[in-house]
Structures are given as C-alpha cells and as structure tokens.
UniProtKB/TrEMBL annotation:
Keyword Membrane: yes
Any one of the GO CC terms: plasma membrane
Keywords: Membrane, Transmembrane, Transmembrane helix
Stretches with biased composition (Basic and acidic residues): 547-558
Domain Major facilitator superfamily (MFS) profile residue range list: 45-539
Subcellular location: Membrane
Protein name: CIC11C00000002451
Its membrane topology: Multi-pass membrane protein
Family, per entry: Belongs to the major facilitator superfamily. TCR/Tet family.
C-alpha cells in the first residue's frame, strides 16, 4: 500500500499516513470480520472445501478414460463428446449468477445446495441406462459444479484476511492439478477392473463426507432480510439472458465442424441468436437492472479486468494442455490411461510445488506482480517448448518440456485471484465476492472455449493432414471403412491400420496436435499481454487492514476518506 503525506501551509511534509486497505463487507448485512475462521473450524472448513474441489476437478478428466467403454455399452459414439461438453457448458453459463445467490442466501447454504445437486447428478450418471440419461446426469453435475468452484474460492477468501490468503489459495492450485491427473489414474483403474459406473459412484461417499464437514465446521452469521428481500437481490432476467446467450454461442462452437458444417444454417443461427441475446444482457445488466449480475463499478476497474482476462486465457491453455497432452501420450505413444497419468506427473508435481512455493513467497513478501509476470512469461515459453514433442521424442525431453508450463500454471492460480481481489473497491458491499465470482466465471468460460477451440482445430487440420497422408501412403483402400473424422474422434482405430498407413496417419495426427499447441501458445501470449496491466500493489499488511466495524481507537491512522479537502 502507498503511504500518503500531510503537508503544512508551506507545502512541507509533516506526517505520513499509511493508506488503509478497506475489506468490503458481504452485502448481506454481515461484516467481513465476522466471517474469519480460526483453529479447528478453519482446518475442518478447508478440508471440506479441498475435498469438494477435488471431486469436481476429478470429474473434468475422469471421463476421458471411459469414452470408449460407454460408447460401446450404449452403442452411441456420436454423442460421447457431450459427456465433456454437457458438464462444462452449465459450469460456465451459470457461473455469473452464483455471486448474487450466495449474497442473498449465504455462501455456506449455496455450497451445500451445490454439493447436493452435484451428488444427484453423479447418482443419475452412475445409474444411467442409456446415453441420454448419462448426459443428463453430467449436465446436473455441471450445474452443481459451477457453484462449487465459485463458492470454494469465495469461502476461502472470506475465511482468512487477505494478508494470509496466499497460503490458503495455494490449496486450490494443488488440489486442482493433482485431481486433474488423478482422473485418468482412477478412471482407468475403475474402467479396467470394475466398471465405468464407479467413476461416478466414487463422488457419493466423498461428497457426503465433504458436506458433513462443512455443516459441522462452518457457522457464518446468517444473511439479513426476509425470503422476499433475498429473492429481490437476484436478477432473474439477467440470469436468463446471459445463460441463454452463452449456451447458444457455446453450442455453435461445439456443433461447428463437428456435427454441422461451419456455414450451415444451424451454426449460423446459433451464433446470431447467441450474439443478440448477449447484447441484450449487456444492455440490461449495465443500464437497466437494479441488482445486476455483474456490477459495473467492479469490472470498470482496469486492473481487475486485466487480471480476469489474464486468468481467462491462462485457463484456456491450461485446460487445452491437460486434455491434449493426455491425448498425445495415449494416441501417439499408445499409452494407457494409467500410463498417460504417469507421463503427466512432471507437469502436476511442478504445478503443486510451484503453487506451494508461491503461497509461501506471497505470504511473506506480499509481492503479486512479480509472480504474476513470472507465470505470464513462462506461459508462452512452456507451451512453445511443447512444440518439440513428436512421435519419437525421448523420455527425458518429454519430462523436461513439461516443467516450464507447470511452473507457469503453479504461479498463476493465486496471482491472478489476489491481483483482482486487492483492487476490489472496499466501499462497495459484496465487491470481493463479485470480483471472485467474475474471475471464476472468466476462468470457467476460458476453459470451455479453450477445449472446444482445440477440438475444432484438431478436427479441421487433422482431416487435411490425414487426407495428405492417404495420398502419400498409397493405402487408401485401408481407409475405405473409416472416415477421416472417425479416425480423429476414435484415434485408437489408427493402430488397426496396416503399418505404412498407420505411420502416415500418426504423422498427420502429430501435425494436428502441433497446431493445437500453437493455438495454446497464442492463448498464453494473450494472457501475458493482459498480465502487464494488472496492479503493481502489494498484498496489504495486517496493520493496513481496515474493516467497516473497526472502532476508532483500533485504527492506526486517520481514514483517508475522512480527510477534508483543505488539509
């Protein structure tokens, strides 16, 4: 924080007054200081939050190992992509609404309801009798998952003051990265030795344990107001508009080049309608709504927008790497789901160690911009090094090229969040919650768009490269029963081709994967550009914190807002 001076009539500095960091209240009638946790309550609450986040992150990658078995059981490979899309779409589309819901009804109640919804979706998916029922279960999981992801971060942020937050936030990065790689391990084990249904059954006992710990440990003051007053805080029209608009646009991205051609009427109509609805949402939210989902006073702060957009593009390449590095190992090197998890360990271990170090470093030095820029610079470097991967890459190279990208991701988790939170306007109630939820929305949207964009590029470029491989191999007859798109969607079939055709097709697939890495390199560069415009401020010291319920004698210096203009 910057210290400001008072001057005498001759302009000489006579006393320095430290600028206070005003921690915003929740906007529900409670005070920020009332939300802080200590002792066993803090430990048990963090354990509950980490456990909840673990099963959520696990579900984003565990399905990658069961696609073939599920499509075989239900005889519907054309719908198998919706097991991923059906989960991620509601997570992103509903994310903006959770901030207002949690302010109205409380963060604990919102998270508890989200866990229950997620568990219901898991049970439906586990008991599914056909592909449509399974996809429906995944959609319900995504609805609960979006609230879980937002509320875990908000509750951690509320439970400890900002100067202690870096260490707590390190848990998020570690949990997410470890769970993302455990997904293929656990999914592969269940699919191979038991049944793919256990990939969803496993959520039930773990989620129940997390919910019990949450109910025992967390007892925040209840939000004030009647049910009618609480409902009035929620912008239902805004929620409908942004959800409908995002669903239409993301469906267009999902269908385009996959189920329909990009110039088809279905895709064009989805893009146009989605764009119109999103424009209507922006007009309503920023000009007409009395309780906007996205507070214009918050997103108007340039440093907050820079941090959120940097996080968005960083998460684009993170999700792209997690998905397509696994595909690289499984397709190009014919690794099992279990082995691909082992191959990704250098990346995950690096992320975990870096996130831990960053939490300690930021806790004691209070620097945000330093680790933010380190992450932003290493992003393009790390993704660029992945272009060295090929069909015959040595083990040492495969390990080495994963480390810089892992360092970038490890530094990014806390840095972008704290860079946004430290600029949350303290005089606006609920600003910390709104900033946190908005950043989480940007990351969720970035993750969906990143994965979809990578899939679209792989299909488009892969078909071109495989067509070239067909001509050069002279074995076009071997492909008579397989379309180029089918080879890309079910690449295990490549290994059933004759040797010459197989080698040519694997070369084509590797070229398409390299184009995917180039796309993620572009995402990383954009994240770097936005990181340049984030705040240069440090995390405030304990002595610089100020709360709305502080007594006058507890303050170390006068409130800058109370100084008259003639001082």
């Amino acid at each position: 924080m910057i210290a400001r001076s008072l001057t005498d009539s001759q302009g000489k500095s006579v006393i320095k007054i430290p600028k206070k960091f005003l921690q915003s209240d929740a906007g529900d009638g409670t005070r920020a200081s009332q939300q802080y946790l200590h002792g066993y309550q803090l430990v048990l609450t963090l354990a509950s939050l980490v456990t909840t986040l673990f099963i959520l992150a696990l579900d984003q990658t565990i399905v990658l190992t069961l696609l073939t078995d599920v499509s075989s059981d239900f005889g519907s490979f054309t719908k198998v992509g919706w097991l991923t899309s059906g989960f991620m779409l509601p997570m992103a589309c509903l994310a903006p609404s959770y901030g207002k819901v949690s302010i109205a009804f409380g963060r604990k109640n919102t998270l508890a309801a989200a866990i229950i919804i997620f568990e219901i979706g898991s049970l439906i998916a586990a008991l599914a009798q056909n592909m449509d029922m399974l996809i429906g279960g995944r959609v319900i999981q995504g609805i609960g998952g979006g609230a879980i992801q937002a509320m875990v971060i908000v509750i951690i942020s509320e439970s400890v003051p900002i100067h202690k937050r870096p260490l707590a936030m390190a848990l998020i990065g570690i949990t997410f990265s470890v769970a993302s790689v455990c997904g293929p391990f656990i999914g592969g084990a269940f699919t191979t030795h038991v049944t793919w249904r256990w990939c969803f059954y496993i959520n039930l006992p773990i989620g129940a344990l997390a919910l019990i710990m949450l109910l025992i440990a967390l007892h925040p003051p209840p939000p004030e107001g009647s049910v009618r007053e609480k409902l009035a805080k929620i912008d239902f029209l805004g929620t409908f508009l942004i959800t409908a608009g995002l669903v239409l646009v993301l469906l267009a991205l999902t269908f385009g080049g996959n189920e329909y051609a990009w110039n088809s009427a279905a895709v064009i109509v989805l893009f146009v309608l989605g764009g119109v609805v999103l424009v209507l949402f922006m007009g309503w939210n920023f000009m007409l709504s009395k309780n906007p989902l996205i507070d214009g006073r918050v997103v108007a702060v340039p440093q907050i927008m820079a941090a959120c957009l940097s996080a968005c593009f960083s998460f684009m390449f993170f999700m792209g790497l997690m998905n397509y590095l696994a595909i690289y190992f499984q397709v190009i090197h014919r690794a099992s789901a279990w082995q691909s998890g082992v191959d990704l360990l250098p990346f995950v271990i690096t992320v975990s160690l870096t996130a831990t170090f960053n939490g300690i470093f930021m806790r004691f030095t209070r620097f945000i911009k330093l680790t933010m820029m380190t992450s932003a610079i290493l992003g393009p470097v790390g993704v660029g090094l992945l272009l060295l991967l090929g069909r015959h890459t040595s083990t040492s190279t495969k390990i080495g090229v994963l480390i810089p990208a892992g360092v970038s991701v490890g530094f990014q988790f806390q840095s972008t969040l704290l860079a946004a939170q430290v600029k949350a306007p303290g005089h606006i109630e609920g600003s910390m919650i709104m900033v946190t939820v908005f950043l989480n929305f940007c990351k969720s949207l970035g993750g969906v768009v990143g994965v979809v964009a990578c899939q679209v590029l792989l299909l488009a470029r892969g078909q071109i490269y495989i067509d070239e491989a067909l001509r050069s191999s002279g074995n076009q007859q071997s492909f008579s029963s397989l379309t180029k798109k089918a080879l890309l969607q079910a690449p295990q079939a490549i290994w059933n081709l004759p040797e010459d055709a197989r080698n040519a097709t694997l070369d084509a697939y590797m070229k398409a994967l390299r184009d995917v890495f180039y796309l993620n390199l572009a995402f990383a560069v954009v994240a770097l550009v936005f990181a340049l415009f984030t705040t240069n401020e440090k995390i405030p010291k304990k002595s610089q914190l100020q709360h709305s319920d502080d007594k006058p004698e507890e303050k170390e210096g006068p409130d800058l807002n109370s100084l008259t203009s003639d001082v």
